Amino acid sequence: MLDQKTIDIVKSTAPVLDQHGETLTRHFYQRMFTHNPEVAPFFNPAHQKSGSQQRALAAAICAYAANIDNLEVLGNAVELIAQKHASLHIKPEHYPIVGENLLASIREVLGDAATDDIINAWANAYGFLANILINREAQIYKDNATMPGGWDGFKTFHVMRKERESSIITSLYLTPQDGLALPAFKAGQYITIRMPTPNGSTTMRNYSLSDKPGNDYFRISVKRETPPEANTPAGYVSNMLHDSVNVGDTVELSAPCGEFFFDPSEHHARPLVLLAAGIGITPLMSILLTALDTHKDRDIFLIHGCLDTDVQPFKSTLDKLAQTHSNLHIHYRYSDMKPADIQNAAHSSTGFVDAALIESIIPGRDADYYFCGPKIFMVNIYHQLLDWGIPASQVHFEFFGPRQELDKKAA
Fold it and tell me: Family assignment (predicted)?
C-alpha cells in the first residue's frame, strides 16, 4: 500500500497536473519516442497527431492523482486500460520505460517545482499502479491462452472472405491458419490486428468483432478512414485492409479483449436497448445476434443513426432479422436522408438519435442500454441516461477516447 506521505504529495499535485497535463503528456510522448523508439508500434500515430492520445493520458494521470486515496472509484478505468494493454501485448518490461520517461518529463516540464519529494512520491505512485496493471494483465494473458481455442501473443489468420457492407465499410472474415477452433469471445469485444509498415516496423489497431461468438471465423467490419483535415494522412491500416489485403492473404491477430460486452446469462424482463451511430454499430451487431439467440422472449430495440443509406452497413441483414424475430424492433435515424430513401422509409426518420426519438420507440425508460458511436453521440446519450436516473448497472458503452470527456456535456 502507498504511505500517507506519498498520498498527500500526489494529491497536492493534482491541480498543477490539471493545469499542465497536456503539456506534460506531449513532452512525455516526444521524449519516449526519441529515447525508446522500440515502443512506438504500440501507439496509433493518428491519435498522436490529433492529440487524443495526449489528452487521454493527461486525463488518466489527473484522475489517478485526485483519487489516489480512493482507488476503488478507478476500478473500471483500470480494467479498460488492462484490457487495452493485453490486446496490444504490452508486457512488464515496458512499464519501466514509461515510468522513467514520465518522471523525467515531470522534471523537465515543471522545472524547480518538481522537487525530489514530488518525484519520489510519483515514482512510488507509478510503481504501485504499474503492479496493479501488470498483475491484472497477467491474468488476462493466462485466461486468453488457456481457454479452449485461445492463444498468447499474435496468431496468423487467413482472410477467407471480404464483403462490402457500404460505400465506406468492408467486412473481413478471418480464420486461423492452424485450422484450430476459435475461442468463445464475449459479444462486444474486439481483436487487435498487427500490420507491417513501410519502414519495416509494425503498427496495431483495435477492431470490434461484428458477428456473434461460436462461428468458425472472426468478422471485423472496417470503416475506411479518410483524412480528418487537410495535410493529415488517411487511416493507414483501414485503407490497407480495404485496398491491399485480399482473400487468401494472412494477417496477425491478438486474442479478443475488452471490458464492454453483453452477458447472455443475465436475464431481465426489462427491454434491451442498443443505440449506435456510424461505425459504432459493429460491437452492437455482435451483441444483437447473441441476444437474439439467447433472449428470445425479451424485447430488443436497436436504433442506428448514420448519414444516409450509402454509408449504412448491415441494413439488409437487420431488416431480415426484424422480419424473423418478433421481439426485435429496429429504427434507422438518418441525418441526411436522400430523396430516393424517403420512398423506402419504413422504420426510419430524419434527424439525430436523441431523447425524444428514444422515448417514442421504447415503452419506458427502465431498460438495459448499450451504446457506441462518435464522441458527441456518446456524450449526449450518456448524459441523457444520467438525467433519466438510469442505474449505472444498466448503462454499458464503448467510448474511444478519455472517459473524462464523457462528463463534459455537449452544448
Answer: In the C-terminal section; belongs to the flavoprotein pyridine nucleotide cytochrome reductase family.
Known binding residues for FAD are 190, 205-208, 399-402
Q: Are residues 293 and 186 in the same domain?
A: no
Whether pLDDT at 411 is above 70: no
CATH of the domain at 351: 3.40.50.80
- pLDDT value of position 398: 86
| Percentage with pLDDT > 70 across the chain | 94
Please provide the distance, in angstroms rounded to a whole number, between the alpha carbons at the two ends of the chain: 42
Confidence category of residue 372, pLDDT binned at 50, 70, 90: very high
| Largest distance between two CA atoms of the chain | 70
- Residue where one domain finishes, among candidates 205, 220, 254: 254
Identity of residue 273: V
- Please report whether residue 261 resides in a domain: no
Q: Are 140 and 257 in contact (CB under 8 A)?
A: yes
| Residue among 16, 319, 351, 304 nearest 169 (CA) | 304
Whole-angstrom CA distances from 99 to 73, 128, 132, 341 are: 23, 11, 14, 54
Question: Measuring CA to CA, how many Å separate 264 from each of 76, 291, 350?
Answer: 21, 7, 33
* Active site amino acids: 95, 137
Annotated binding site: 85, 190, 205-208, 278-283, 399-402
What is the average per-residue pLDDT within 25-29?
92
Annotated binding site for heme b: 85
Q: Hey, is 79 helix, strand or coil?
A: helix
Residues 50 and 128 in one domain: yes
Q: How far is CA 200 from CA 47, 113, 195, in A?
A: 21, 41, 10
- Of residues 171, 181, 176, the one with CA closest to residue 213: 181
- Per residue in 61-97, pLDDT (tens digit) is 888 888 888 878 777 888 999 999 999 999 999 999 9
> Whole-structure pTM over 0.90, yes or no?
yes
Note down the domain range covering 234.
Answer: 154-254
What digits encode the pLDDT tens for the residues 164-177? 999 999 999 999 99
Say if 390 falls within a structural domain: yes
- Mean per-residue pLDDT for 319-346? 85
